[in-house]
Specification:
The protein is built from 16 helices and 22 strands. By secondary structure, the chain is an alpha+beta fold. The strands form six sheets. It has a six-stranded mixed sheet with strand order 14-18-19-17-16-15, with no helix packed on it. Strands 6-8-9-11-10 form a five-stranded mixed sheet. Helix 1 runs antiparallel to helix 4 (87-108), helix 2 (39-59) runs antiparallel to helix 3 and helix 3 runs antiparallel to helix 4 (87-108). It starts with a helix and ends in an 8-residue tail after the last strand.
Length: 604
């Protein structure tokens, strides 16, 4: 139960992280529009981001963010309808993005002057509630790490409809600053009438870190009580443990996204380079002494082991990914005044974490649409001779190297396909809607547009949709499990395109030719921020400025080393799939062709 509560709280944490990223991207889109670049695709992309933020915020009951995102959608919808963007439109979009960012910032910043009152008392307490074996194991690990144990209490002074989101926000903040063991109430249950929260957690940073995490609007009467582990009878585990980390059988490591992407690239390249050395120098290896041959063989084995360890710990099971769905469906059904339950069946299959994030978002879109547009109200279902309670079925099958995910509901089915189109092509078209107006759960059909974009373009999967027997709606997603997503910057130099891993990119700049110098060996350097940075081209012939535009520089950073890559222009950042067997090329959706993948590690 505590695990499900943690997963629910993570939905709110993921919303905040995802929204921050999308707002940054919206600012970049505004900049592109101000330059008159990629107008149509930029408007479509901005519309998807605005809808995603509004849809997620609506589900989490962040009313002010919903309204701000809706205003941005209205401006963008007008531009899409006209097929053009005037200077006034760009300013209106910019203002709407700034307003959305302001509402999002206000959500996270503490407000002063809230009313206070008597603390809410509870007949039960976490210190009186028996802990299960999983919770006891977590406490044993925390004690071994030297963390302190705390009982945290607070009261929420909010409007009733905003109490649940505030509780999730508080727990999400505590998850970042501490190790949360349990909460009262459990956040996956009914929160009606609840206005108090009790959290059992451990922390290395002390009480100050906890109070900083609780510095949220409408959170009052905060109590942080230090406990003794003996009070909860946390005895030492009797099972064997690691000698390096006594008492710890599992370690969790937080790593910044760019660092993780670099780690994956580095381990891949390590294996590749050793393989190339073995292949190209096979005859020379035979002449090496036996100990030297063994060392090379050991190095190759270690490289494979490290590479496999990185990826083996970078996958999440489909079961873990979909476990929060029943609780989410219950919440959606309650908010929409319907009765809906979810049936889940799942075979053993795992997804690479970045792919899992995309699949999770797509399934949430389909679930919201099923509750909002598919499942009828209890009254309408009775009139049609159905049970009042609607059913959504989610099933997962392993069809290596694919995962087959099926989402079906017993609602009113899907619209009829347009002439010459499949049902999926019809309902996933940009702007398609089955509703006269947006609702609080999903939206104006944009969700399926986003599902199509993420599944088909980002992770290279496919989607089929059809109406089943009895008026049901069925969606079948085919998800590749072998390829690995990689964010790249697509650039053009000498009329040829290349992809540079975004994890290495520090900045892009306009090249000032007066800042180019040549050293005694004839190598070019560029004066940037008071330092000389090696200057190189993607092509042996170099790169020359065109009559229409100046040269651009892509500044790369790998460890302590930096270099500046000269190109004619940058096309944009996108997510591509990297086939392990075709490691030096990727397919770019931006330019609709296979292009070389530039790996800076090989040239430093």
């Amino acid at each position: 139960m505590a695990q499900t509560a943690t997963q629910s709280a993570r939905l709110h944490s993921m919303f905040r992280q995802d929204s921050e990223g999308m707002i940054e991207l919206l600012h970049l889109i505004v900049t592109r529009l101000q330059r008159g670049e990629s107008v149509v695709s930029s408007i479509d992309q901005a519309f998807r981001y605005a809808h995603s933020i509004r849809s997620e915020a609506s589900f989490l009951h962040y009313a002010s963010i919903v309204e701000a995102a809706r205003e941005l959608e209205l401006v963008l919808r007008g531009c899409r309808a006209r097929g053009a963007v005037a200077a006034a439109d760009v300013e209106a979009i910019r203002s709407a993005v700034v307003a959305l960012e302001h509402e999002f910032s206000a959500l996270r910043e503490p407000q002063r002057g809230s009313e206070t009152g008597a603390p809410v008392t509870s007949s039960a307490s976490l210190v009186e509630t028996p802990l299960d074996e999983v919770q006891l194991h977590r406490l044993r690990q925390s004690r071994t790490r030297g963390e302190s144990l705390y009982l945290v209490r607070c009261r929420i002074t909010e409007q009733p409809e905003m109490i649940a989101p505030r509780l999730f926000l508080v727990v999400g903040n505590l998850e970042k600053a501490t190790h949360v063991v349990d909460t009262l109430p459990r956040l996956d249950g009914n929160l009606d009438g609840v206005d108090g929260l009790e959290v059992l957690c451990t922390a290395a940073g002390g009480e100050k870190e906890i109070r900083r995490a609780l510095a949220v609007d409408a959170v009052e009467d905060i109590e942080v009580q230090a406990l003794d582990y003996a009070e909860l009878d946390v005895r030492s585990a009797e099972s064997p443990h690691s000698g390096a980390l006594p008492g710890v059988s599992r370690v969790s490591v937080d790593i910044e996204t760019r660092e993780y992407e670099r780690l994956c690239l580095h381990t891949d390249e390590l294996v590749h380079q050793l393989r190339e050395v073995q292949k190209r120098s096979a005859e020379q290896f035979k002449t090496l002494p036996r100990p030297a041959q063994l060392r090379v063989a050991l190095s190759e084995k270690l490289a494979y082991t490290v590479n496999n360890t990185v990826y083996r710990n970078s996958y999440v099971s489909a079961r873990e990914l979909l476990d929060p769905l029943p609780a989410i469906v219950r919440r959606l059904a309650r908010d929409s005044g319907k009765r809906v339950r979810l049936q889940l069946s799942c075979e053993e299959v795992s997804l690479f974490l970045p792919v899992a994030d995309v699949v999770r978002d797509a399934v949430l879109h389909l679930i919201r649409n099923a509750v909002d547009h598919g499942i009828e109200s209890p009254h309408a279902r009775r009139e049609r001779g159905k049970q009042e309670e609607g059913v959504i079925t989610v099933s997962v099958k392993n069809d290596d190297p694919y995962m087959l995910l099926r989402v079906a509901d017993d609602g009113q089915g899907l619209p009829v396909a347009r002439s010459g189109q499949s049902v999926w092509d019809t309902i996933s078209a940009a702007g398609f809607s089955t509703a006269a107006a947006g609702t609080s759960v999903s939206g104006e059909g944009v969700g399926l547009d986003a599902v199509r974009y993420s599944i088909e373009r980002i992770i290279g999967g496919s989607v089929k949709a059809e109406s089943g027997s009895g008026g049901s709606a069925v969606f079948e997603l085919r998800i590749p499990t072998g390829d690995r997503p990689l964010r790249v910057l697509v650039v053009e130099a000498n009329n040829r395109y290349s992809a540079i891993p975004a994890a290495y990119i520090e900045n892009t700049i306009a090249i000032d030719t007066t800042s180019v110098t040549r050293d005694a060996e004839g190598l070019l350097h560029y004066q940037h921020d008071g330092h000389e940075v090696p200057l190189r081209s993607l092509h042996k012939s170099g790169v020359h400025a065109s009559d229409q535009s100046e040269l651009q520089g892509v500044l790369l950073q790998i460890g302590e080393s930096r270099q500046l890559i000269v190109v004619n222009r940058t096309v944009g950042i996108e997510t591509v799939l990297r086939d392990i067997d075709s490691r030096d090329q990727v397919f770019s959706q931006s330019v609709n062709q296979k292009i070389p993948l530039f790996l800076p590690l090989r040239y430093l």
